[in-house]
Amino acid sequence: MVCAERRASLTGTKAAVAAGLAAVLCLVATACSGPGVAPADTVRIVLPDEPPTLEPCDASLTGTGVVVRSNITEPLIERDPTSGELTPLLATSWSQTAPTTWTFTLRPGVRFSDGTPFDAAAAAFSIDRAVNSSIGCDVQGYVFGDDRLVAEAPDPSTLTVTSPAPDPIMPLRLSFVEMVPPSTAATAQVRQPIGTGPYQVASWDAGTRLALTRNPGYWGSPPGFARAEYQWRSDSSVRAAMVVNGEADIATGIAPEDGAGELGISFPNNETTALRIQATEPPLNDIRVRRAIGLVIDRDGIISALFNGDGAPAAQLVPNGVIGYNSSLRPEPFDPPGAKALVEAARADGVDLSVPIRLIARTGLFPRVAETTQAIQYQLSQLGLNVKIQMMDNAAGLKYQQRPFPERTGPYLLVIQHGNQAGDAAFTVDQYLRGDGYQSSYGTPEFDARIAAAEALSGQARQDALAGLFAREPEEVDQYAYLAHMRGMLARSPRVRYEPNAATGDEMRLAAMSPAG
Amino acid sequence: MLTFLRGRTLSSAIPLLVVLLGVFLLARLTGDPTALYLPESATPAQRAEFASVNGLDQPIWKQLLDYLGGVVRLDLGTSLRTEESAAEMALRAFPVTLSLAVVTMVLAVLGAIVVGSWAAYRPNSMADRVSSFLSMTTASVPDFWFAITGVWILAVVLGVLPTSGTDNGVLSWVLPIATLMIRPLGVLTQVVRGAMVSALSAPYVRLARSKGADSRRVVTHHALRNASAPVLTVAGDLAVSLVNGAVIVETIFGWPGIGKLMIDAILQRDFAVLQAAVLLTAVTIFAMNIAIDIGYALLDARVRDVARV
Lengths: 517, 309
Fold this sequence. Notes:
The complex is a heterodimer of chains A (about 525) and B (about 300).
Chain A: H1 2-8, H2 12-33, E1 42-47, H3 62-68, E2 77-79, E3 86-88, E4 91-98, E5 101-106, H4 120-132, H5 138-144, E6 150-155, E7 158-162, H6 170-174, E8 199-205, E9 209-214, E10 227-232, H7 236-244, E11 250-251, E12 264-277, H8 287-296, H9 299-306, E13 311-313, H10 336-348, E14 356-362, H11 369-381, E15 386-392, H12 394-401, E16 412-419, H13 426-432, H14 445-455, H15 459-476, E17 480-492, E18 496-497, E19 514-515
Parallel strand pairs in A: 1-10, 1-11, 14-15, 14-16
Antiparallel strand pairs in A: 2-3, 4-5, 5-7, 6-7, 8-9, 9-10, 11-17, 12-16, 12-17, 13-17, 18-19
Helix pairs in contact in A: 1-2, 8-10, 14-15
Chain B: H1 2-29, H2 34-37, H3 44-53, H4 60-72, H5 86-121, H6 126-140, H7 143-157, H8 170-200, H9 203-210, H10 215-253, H11 258-267, H12 271-299, H13 301-308
Helix pairs in contact in B: 1-12, 5-6, 5-8, 5-10, 5-12, 6-8, 7-8, 7-10, 8-10, 9-10, 10-11, 10-12, 11-12, 12-13
């Protein structure tokens, strides 16, 4: 009103200028109250990237799972991220009814968000689609490997799943399979799924925003927020600024230096960083050189100076809480003289240490990965090793991380980060320690036999055998120089109540969020 | 004029073709996208099927021919990442970048004309020195630094602008436009100033003044018209380079434009989307260059004369 009155009192050019200024002032005034105002029943989340798809059988992909899992779709069983215990979800109970068969009793009265009843036939369809089909489900390779499962529905509330060989952790594996109705395409992936979860897709404005609304037919308690909106910003400081500025309620993947201040919350994220040593290439094929690399890395210094103290030195690839974690292992000491002695012994035996060694890291793998790589390069150079850094983007780095590895590359060290979200070390040792593991560069037949034996066990015997693998690996293979058990950070608005946990990076449950106050 | 247009079209079409070929070949040199899109333990048969379905098992020359054939049929392929039509994705993103670029260039040119002419009108005055200092500073500031600093000062500290996004109407445009505009404004101000200093000291301007023409008319009708040809040329070059700036602006501010689409496509080895985005951008630049040449010819008869020769 004031703006209009001022305009009316002036004429000609001056009036135009005044009108322009008034318009700017009005806009600024609007801005003061504009950005950051959100409906009270909506939680706004900002992610680093737009989900590539919401296909449930790709939910083991972080970018997809963080939106889909336990929000839109649900599995039969879920794993408590803190205790590691399996708890009922769409299945109320389960048992091993034959050496290769598990039987599940399904929760009655559950419906998909399109009204279709959830029953054993739907569960069998979901498992068959995710595990046995050729539609390229990520969960297939990550969780089930080449195994084919037979899922059958003897009655609407009973599901049987049979594997080719006895599988003591079948329920854990099935906790990765999201349930979808039989109307879901069986021969192609879908971008927007139907599920039984507390939310359903409301709209997906590609490139801009994804909105979920409460599933009115949800079988459990209604979630605290009626609506959830996801946006994505590549720059972590902008994500943090959105929460500080009141434009978002949760921002994931931020670092301490991003400026979230007191709104930043650190949490254990199950990720472990390490150097994978390409042990097939000289001079890295000499175990003394590999051991020297482990001894010359100053883990405490890196964690203190580069991770702001947010992390713990690692002695194995899995953190506490995962079945198979070995609590008796201690990180290798920072021992430059000892490392130097090992290297000199190798040199005396004719090992050529002048060969250039590439230290490869992926940009964005974790906060301050470039600085961490530079610190490691400096420490390795103190050993007299000729190490050159090579930073790569995700796609280029994966060529060195996953089999088949590039040939005739010369020796290289790869900075890796592994997160075991399954809660069982079998998922780690299969990929990272077995000689032909998909992300393993080296092994021995003897150690592979130990892995196979450990994976066939269950209960405490399984825990002890898997823990034993982590203890023996440095002696028999020594493919890794472990760095740190990492922690994640997110920014949380004061208007939201939410406590992140070890699974938050892969599965951010909207139902665990509620309006504060 | 038709001869002029034909010549310019042919000479601009060759770089367009080179760009398309270059992007096609360079994208494939960066590696096989299979590892990004298939499960970690996909079998060799699944990998072979993925390659076959997406034409990645064909020799490069065959893939190139298929691509060029698709361009002719306006079929630019399907995104590996989203399985959407690559052309639709590029066309959806393009107006966002185009609107950013148009607004940026209009404001930059207007601002440069005002500030540059003002500085040239009184050379070596305090106003001239201040405008030269500011224009050189803005031309040198890294845009990503300006963007992040702008977010913190104007959005977080002062709270007068949104940090990012497109939800807040005109306010959403301020920081992205300012970030995109800062370099063109600095460069153009210098160009306008230089051209205007020359024009204002030319004999025809002195003649106009001696005839009693007022200062405003001398600047706007005589000097500015003759100084506009180099400004137009530089503005054209700067408009083309806005695509580079758009990558940064759209990434930082979350604008779903062609720059963000390109960088995502590169990181995800999404060849079809990358090629569609580059094709659309290149064709636009191609058209823009033609338009600039026409404008240049209209402003300067000597250009038309050279084209006729």
